[in-house]
Amino acid sequence: DIQMTQSPASLSASLEEIVTITCQASQDIGNWLAWYQQKPGKSPQLLIHSATSLADGIPSRFSGSRSGTQYSLKISRLQVEDTGIYYCLQRYSKNTFGAGTKLELK
Amino acid sequence: EVQLVESGGGLVQPGRSLKLSCAASGFTFSNYYMAWVRQAPKKGLEWVATISTSGSRTYYPDSVKGRFTISRDNAKSSLYLQMNSLKSEDTATYYCARDNNYFDYWGQGVMVTVSS
C-alpha cells in the first residue's frame, strides 16, 4: 500500500506569512495528489487536485507543486480564514490520506 | 448546487449492523463515481469505499473489506453503505463524497458510534 508522510504535524504562522506543507509518497504516484482543508466541525474542502491544479473557487494564494515523490502545498500570504487542518490525498492506487497538518495563527 | 445529505447514523452495539444513506442533488448522480470517507473522533480521514457509476464495480480498503458494502440507486440519486460486524474502531463520522477523479463535494457527515 502507498504511504503518505505529511509534515509538519502542526504549524503556527503569522498573517501574510508564506506557509508550506509537504507530503512524501512512498512510491511514484504521478500527479494523482490532492490537498484538502478542513475546518472544525466541517467537511473537507478540495483545494488542489492533480498536484498543481487549483480547485474551483479557491483563492490564488493557494498553490501546489511536485518534485519527484514530494508534494507541497503553499499558502503565499496567510489569512485568518486559512486556519484549519490540511490533508493530502493520493489517488494513484486506492486512496491514502496524509495524517494532516494543523495550521494556526501565531 | 451540489448537495449530499447523509442519514442513518447512531449508536450501535459491537457486532451489529447499520446502513447509511446519502441523498444527492444538484448534479446528474448516475454520471459520477461515489465514495464514503470516515473520520474517527479527533483523527484523520480514511477512505472507506468507492462505487462505479453503474454500481458494477466496488472498491474497499482491507480495513472494511468483507464487512462493508457500498451500493447505489441511480433512480433515487442515492448512495448507501451497509456496515456489518461493526467494531469499536468503526466509530467515526462518515462522509458521502462525489468522486470526480477527486472527492470534490462532500456531505456534512453522519456520526456512527459503536459501543456496548
Question: Could you explain the architecture of this structure?
Answer:
The complex is a heterodimer of chains A (106) and B (116). Chain A has 106 residues and is an all-beta fold. Helices cover 0% and strands 51% of the residues of chain A. Chain A has strands spanning 4-7, 10-13, 19-25, 33-38, 45-49, 53-54, 62-67, 70-75, 84-90, 96-97, 101-105. In chain A, a hairpin with a 3-residue loop joins strand 5 (45-49) and strand 6 (53-54). The radius of gyration of chain A is 13 Å and the shape is globular. The N and C termini of chain A lie far apart (37 Å). With 116 residues, chain B is mainly β. In chain B, 0% of the residues lie in helices and 53% in strands. Chain B is built from no helices and eleven strands. In chain B, the strands form two sheets. In chain B, strands 2, 4, 5, 6, 9, 10 and 11 form a seven-stranded mixed beta sheet that branches. Chain B has a four-stranded antiparallel beta sheet with strand order 1-3-8-7, with no helix packed on it. In chain B, strand 5 (45-51) and strand 6 (58-59) form a beta hairpin. The radius of gyration of chain B is 13 Å and the shape is globular. Classes of the chains: A mainly beta (106), B mainly beta (116). At the A-B interface, strand 4, strand 5 and strand 10 of A face strand 5 and strand 10 of B.
